[in-house]
Amino acid sequence: MASLQTIIDGVRADPGLKSSIPKTKIDKGVDAARRMNDVLLTVLEQINALDDGIVSVGEMREVSEITYRTPEYFRAFILGHGNDAGRTTGFHHVQNDGGTLLFQGRNFIDTVADAIYHFGFQIRNGRYFNEDGNDNERVDDVAGWLNYFLFGKNTIFGTDGADELSSGKYSKAFRAAASEWWYAGDGRDKIWADKGNDRIFGGAGADQSGGGDGRDRMYGEAGNDTLWSDDGRDSIYGGAGDEEMGGGAGGDMLDGGEGNDTIYGWTGNDRIYGGDGNDDAHGDNGHDRMFGGAGADSFSGGSGEDFIQGGSGRDELGGGDQSDTVDGGEGADRIYLWEEGSARDVLVFRLGDSGLTPDEMDYVEGFVSGRDKINLSSLGPMTYRADDYRGGGQASCYFAEETLLIDANGDGQTDMKITFRYTADLKAVDFIFG
């Protein structure tokens, strides 16, 4: 059951408040908060706003209207809210009295709790206005803060415009709130998360999102978005549009989704999925796993022992430094294995991955006979021949004029060709057969 006890606990725990005013005043402030909590929870239950685990900005507008228009609710709300004109009453017993706890970089009692306890006043230009007729905090911010105290889900709402949303410091009492949920909404938004395990939903528009430290999950959604994480094992989903995304430090998962995406794994053992579209992906440091999907992709593993799979389409794949496994998949792919040192790369081919004409064939550069391997195990038992097929129902392959020719079923006919540019010869030891 939803509760607002965490606000009460925060008021009682605030060290600045305890050192500035007597306990009797704190008790009066707590009693006022409880009175307003009862009204707020009653109205939220009345409109079924607690059923889905998140209170929206629209629902907070509805709460304001119902509370203001219902005499019973509004009287109880005003008694709890109180005033500081003349005799101090209600929640004003603890406001501006030395509270030091911070919530999202704001003073917890004087700003955050005070703003939540404006829920019964009317709204003007997206803000509550108070008993003096002055503007208070944005309804969007209040709805977001309230979700933490109700459900433990600290939420930051954007608008339909171009928002710049950022986080702030949290006192130790609210350290769990540093893991935030961001809903940017429509518009070209800028979202800057900080420490914590955040969830970022960019919504429509060409957004820029920064995940900060922690294990973040970032969703670009609609639009051509830019998404960058920092330290931590993050998950980044591009969605529709042409995204640019980077994983930062840590073993990240990056999925470009639809569109022509540019993806950087950076440091760590990353998993990169290009998805649909013509994607450009770089594994960079670490032992990365990269999957191209549909489209003509360009993948580079960088340093580390990488696994690269092109998927369907005419892909360009480069293993980079160290010993990599490269699987071009369907389509006429270009595979580059050039590297310094003694890395041992493995090329994986299946029947149909490469065609018979120059326009359909896979093209390989940088293969070193005696060091690198060609994995044809998916074709079953096979032998390597010096200059022709074995035939007689026995699958075999041979190499001539920079081309590997493959008879997959032993009928003596060529089923697949692969070009190995700048490779003078191949040997039986270069192959992995089934």
Automatic annotation (TrEMBL):
Alphabetized SUPFAM superfamilies for the sequence: beta-Roll
Region annotation Disordered: where it falls in the sequence: 202-257, 298-330
Subcellular location: Secreted
PROSITE patterns: HEMOLYSIN_CALCIUM (PS00330)
Keywords annotated in UniProt: Secreted
InterPro entries for the chain: Hemolysin-typ_Ca-bd_CS, Hemolysn_Ca-bd, RTX_toxin/Mannuronan_C5-epim, Serralysin-like_metalloprot_C
Biased composition (Gly residues): 202-212, 246-257
Primary localization: secreted
One annotated GO molecular function: calcium ion binding
GO CC annotation terms, alphabetical: extracellular region
One Pfam short name: HemolysinCabind
Gene3D superfamilies, A to Z: Serralysin-like metalloprotease, C-terminal (2.150.10.10)
PANTHER family per record: S-LAYER PROTEIN
Record-given protein name: Calcium-binding protein
Species of origin: Neogemmobacter tilapiae
